[in-house]
Amino acid sequence: MALMRSGRLWRQSSILKRWKLNYFDLWMDGTFICYKDDSRNDYETTLRLKERCVGVKSGLECTGVCPPEGRPRECLLLVFQRDGSTMVMCANSEDEALSWKLALMEAKRSPVYTYDPYDDNYQFVPVDSHNAIYISPDYPGYGYGGTHHIVIQEDPSDGMGEEVALGLLAGMATGAALQSFMWMPFWFC
Q1: 162: Cβ contacts below 8 Å, ≥ 6 apart
Q2: What is the pLDDT of residues 81-131, one digit of tens each?
Q3: CB-CB contact of 8 with 20 (8 Å)
Q4: Three-state SS for 122?
Q5: What is residue 23's DSSP assignment?
Q6: 45: Cβ–Cβ under 8 A, 6 or more apart, which residues?
Q7: How far apart are CA 35 and CA 28, in angstroms?
Q8: Cα separation of 186 and 65, whole Å?
Q9: pLDDT of residue 157
Q10: Angstrom distance (rounded) from CA 142 to CA 130
């Protein structure tokens, strides 16, 4: 995947509202990664723009947020997420903030294609590509025609809610049955 943009931005922490200088990478598939520093060893957060971003604002569009000390409001950059949270950032200049805004919006809306050398064409990669299976039947390693075996592993936690509900129901029934024995009057003894 291609890197669209990278660089340093000030990011406001979500809880203490303190400003920290972080290093960001924006990838063509819409992945926006925040690192602690430019060594890119430790990342702090990852945001998948195509799935979670609902809007981007920059400069004077950003209201209700104070920039870091010594920075003008024109340098602010806000990324609004589906869950209602907002990633608040600040660039070094107004032009840089606008450049980041345009790059974020482009990464959010642009489709992603991968090249298949065996078919000599580009295939569209859907947003939930981690759930997709790609098959190229003309690939020489798989032979021509014949049977293709695809193994799909299910999530081990699927159906767990049903098991928990049945366990709770069985526990309640057992408790109700035992409660009748526990509340027997002592004068029967």
Answers
A1: none
A2: 989 999 999 999 999 999 999 999 988 887 766 777 777 777 766 555 545
A3: no
A4: strand
A5: E
A6: 33, 34, 87
A7: 17
A8: 69
A9: 53
A10: 22
